[in-house]
Amino acid sequence: MEFVDLAALTVHGVKNRLAILAARAEARGDRETLRDALEAAATLSRLLACYKAEKGQLTADIEACTPADLVAELVAEVRQQTALTISAELESAPELWFYDEHLIRMVIRDAIYNALRYARREVIIAARTRAGWLDLGVRDDGPGYPPQILARAAGSWPLSREGTGLGLYLADRVAALHCNGERHGRVELANSGGAAFHLLLPE
Q: How many domains in the chain?
């Protein structure tokens, strides 16, 4: 059995156990443990996806999706895990867009978990069109990205030996799998009253 297949089976088993832990935490109203369990499960999925990306085995199953539904589902999911205000901005969301829902959900969920660590009061998840692109954004009202992160060019967020940068590394790889002609998806970071993460997918 190939390592990636063994890893996938192991990740699946551990995620099932984490799901049981999360269900118990939710039943007790323990938001902190619920979020820790779900974030750990998401980290395992992200790690496996990064391994596949490194081996050239990560592919996108692109189909018609509804961005507003994706954002609404993530908002409802995250509200159960935190006392912070979780809001959606969907006024300019397109009715349909073409992308791999599983991969995009994984990337946006990771951006949300990152925002939850630093937000003071609020996290905003948005979907809107911007000049022929779908902009899926996550903003918080925390201290913002450090200058050394913003100084890096898009696509140059490396993995460290400590595992930091995993989310941005994967976001880049997933974005690049979404293309239309010469236009490839990309990640943009900014500070705008806090950290602002944008995943841009071409029309």
A: 2
178 touches 60 (CB < 8 A): yes
Which residue in this structure is represented by tokens 């900014």?
Answer: 190
* pTM of the predicted structure, to 2 decimals: 0.84
How do the pLDDT tens digits run along the chain, 203 residues long?
Answer: 677 677 777 777 887 787 788 788 888 888 888 888 888 888 888 877 877 877 788 899 999 999 999 999 999 999 999 999 999 999 999 999 999 999 999 999 999 999 999 999 999 999 999 999 999 999 999 999 988 888 775 656 655 443 446 788 899 999 999 999 889 999 999 998 999 999 999 99
Asked if 100 and 176 sit in the same domain, the reply is yes
Q: CA distances (Å), 200 to each of 57, 97, 124, 175, in order?
A: 22, 12, 16, 7
Residue 42, classed as helix, strand or coil, is: helix
Residue-range definition of the domain harbouring residue 126: 61-202
Judge if 110 and 17 occupy the same domain: no
103 in the same domain as 198: yes
